[in-house]
TrEMBL record:
Membrane topology: Multi-pass membrane protein
CDD domains, alphabetized: TM_PBP1_LivH_like (cd06582)
Identification of the protein by name: Branched-chain amino acid ABC transporter permease
Short name of any one Pfam family annotated for the protein: BPD_transp_2
Keyword Electron transport listed: no
A single Gene Ontology CC term: plasma membrane
Record keywords: Amino-acid transport, Cell membrane, Membrane, Transmembrane, Transmembrane helix, Transport
Length: 307
């Protein structure tokens, strides 16, 4: 194993982590503030990728496509909350799970009817294509570095919003004492509306960032949703800081484990056994990490409210 390969995989893990954070941040805000289990968060990630890909191709400008796509994702978040989610916020979690699973099926099939099942072309923006030399032997894609920068910038912005603004104060208060907040004259339903729409936009941003690296197709949000729930559980429901730390951990463990665990097993148990056990164990690592964290901290790394 060379140093270039190791650092390349390390950066890939960080890049996966920030994409998971963008998805999990909206998910943990919705669950922490609204006590709402939204299985349809993955389709919002998928819709973001489709919207930015289509608008970028139509306009010929990635910058326009990204801005218009995020505004469209925000608008769709408002529409979904008003038409669907608002009527489920005071239902039990089982009804929320069933309703949002049904929404996954409806939206996925709707996208398939419009765009087909084949992957939608979403090239890396021309201005951000190519590589940059980090050190001798390691040329790393510029687009992946952009994803890292965007993820860190969003994390800092969210921390400032949650901890240093009046809106963040209301979000934190609404997650723990919604009746008190309502008694003070705050429209809790409107607060929930903006939190949900903002979470949908974050998921759309994650889809837009990941789109050039993965297949933009109707079921692309399924796997990401599972990983995002793992991130939320490890970090602590409702905690933005926990979502960021957990997303980085999950991204690193998943990427580095898949890259190097099979080779490590070959030195321990031989090629034949490693070929069979390596991929299976690699895919299990993040769930073993979750079990380990929950065995010591059942509420996750950073508790259970926005922080």
């Amino acid at each position: 194993m060379t140093a270039a390969l190791f650092f390349s995989q390390l950066l890939n893990g960080l890049q996966l982590g920030v994409i998971l954070f963008l998805v999990a941040a909206g998910l943990t805000l919705v669950f922490g503030v609204m006590d709402f289990i939204n299985l349809a968060h993955g389709v919002q990630y998928m819709l973001g990728a489709y919207l930015v890909a289509v608008l970028s191709a139509w306009s010929g400008s990635f910058a326009f496509g990204l801005a218009a796509g995020l505004l469209a994702a925000l608008a769709l978040g408002f529409v979904m909350e008003v038409l669907v989610f608002r009527h489920l916020t005071r239902r039990d979690h089982l009804e929320q799970v069933l309703a949002t699973f049904g929404l996954i099926l409806v939206v996925t099939e709707g996208v398939r009817m419009i765009f087909g099942s084949a992957p939608l072309p979403f090239p890396v923006p021309a201005a951000l294509n190519g590589t940059v030399t980090l050190f001798e032997g390691l040329n790393y894609p510029v687009w992946r570095l952009v994803i890292l920068a965007v993820g860190v910038a969003v994390a800092v912005l969210l921390w400032v919003l949650v901890n240093r603004t009046r809106a963040g104060m209301l979000v934190r208060a609404g997650s723990t004492h919604p009746q008190t907040v309502a008694a003070l004259g705050v429209d809790v339903d409107r607060l929930f509306l903006f939190v949900f729409a903002f979470g949908a936009m974050l998921a759309g941003l994650a889809g837009a960032m990941a789109g050039p690296l993965v297949s933009v197709e109707p079921t692309m949000g399924d796997k990401v949703l599972i990983l995002a729930f793992v991130v939320v559980v490890i970090g602590g429901i409702g905690s933005i800081k926990g979502a960021f730390v957990a997303a980085i951990l999950v991204g690193l463990v998943d990427t580095v484990g898949r890259a190097f665990l099979p080779d490590l097993l070959r030195t321990l148990v031989g090629k034949s056994a490693a070929a069979t056990a390596g991929p299976t164990l690699s895919s299990m690592l993040i769930y073993l990490l979750m079990a380990l964290v929950l065995s010591f901290r059942p509420s996750g790394l950073f508790g259970g409210r926005p922080s």
